[in-house]
Specification:
25% strand, single chain, six-stranded mixed beta sheet, alpha+beta
Length: 111
């Protein structure tokens, strides 16, 4: 699906600058379209100068879901922060870091 055709949970005009620019990331439509919380996040080595290395998932995506590239998008990390401000304290973590949400809290634990 063309990303311009997605019905994002937060309209672009409502996105606020919450963090300094840190590049792009991958996030699933379960977060960006369906509005679920980030349940799992990890940081890979960046692919290039504009990739932060961060990947954000709700945690309930199946392998079939993830295998469909239409279910993922590339976004500014700041955009994902607007959906999930609870991730902000973890963004300085180095590549190789992974975190899972602790229950219904805004806290994450290292995985």
């Amino acid at each position: 699906m063309d990303p311009t055709q997605k019905a994002f949970k937060i309209p672009g005009v409502q996105i606020q600058q919450l963090i300094p620019q840190m590049g792009g990331c991958f996030a699933s439509d379960r977060i960006m379209v369906d509005g679920l919380l980030v349940g799992y996040m990890y940081r890979d080595e960046p692919y290039n100068d504009v990739d932060s290395g961060w990947r954000f998932l709700s945690g309930d995506e199946s392998q079939d879901y993830m295998d469909d590239p239409d279910h993922l998008g590339i976004y500014a990390v700041n955009t994902v922060c607007n959906y999930a401000p609870a991730i902000i304290p973890y963004l300085d973590s180095p590549p190789g870091s992974a975190f899972g949400r602790i229950g219904d809290t805004d806290k994450f634990q290292s995985e």
